[in-house]
Amino acid sequence: MPTKQYEDFGKLFRNERKDVNDPNDKKPLLQGYVNLNAEILDYLVTAAEAGQELRVEVAAWKFVSKAGKTFYSLIPQVPYAVKQGTNGVPHRIDRNASKRLQEHHAANEADDDIPF
Edge-to-edge strands of the sheet including 70-77? Predict the structure, then answer.
């Protein structure tokens, strides 16, 4: 049965090429990707046209794959204050996001072999 792919989704993995014992190694500690949905892109285009700061909020959850590798799942979102049309409102994370990510990872264990 095919699993649903989320448009607003990302992952961060430990950079296997990073030498954590070398203080001169300037490679990033983590690498990954993020997919942006149409709502986020529309917000970014509108903000850019208005000359505003281009900011997207990101929520992250830590997971361990069946292969034993730690990674972080990301959900980017339009800033909460922008969605509410106010400023200074505390950010609220989608309460269903954690469950949604767990279901996604359980169904997509093939992603464990990403070569970062």
Answer: 30-35, 9-14, 70-77, 57-64
Q: Which residues of the chain have pLDDT under 70?
A: 1-6, 84-102, 104-116
Contacting residues for 52 by C-beta, under 8 A, at least 6 apart: none
Please spell the DSSP secondary structure of 18-54, one letter per residue.
Answer: --TT-TT--S-SEEEEEE--HHHHHHHHHHHHTT---
In the block, tokens 């990403």 appear at 114
Please name every residue paired with 73 in a beta bridge, in sequence order, or none if there are none. Answer: 11, 61
Q: 113: which DSSP letter?
A: G
Which of 10, 1, 20 minimizes the C-alpha distance to 58? 10
pTM for this structure?
0.64
CA atoms of 111 and 115, how far apart (whole Å): 10
What is the distance between the alpha carbons of residues 115 and 46, in angstroms, rounded to a whole number?
Answer: 35
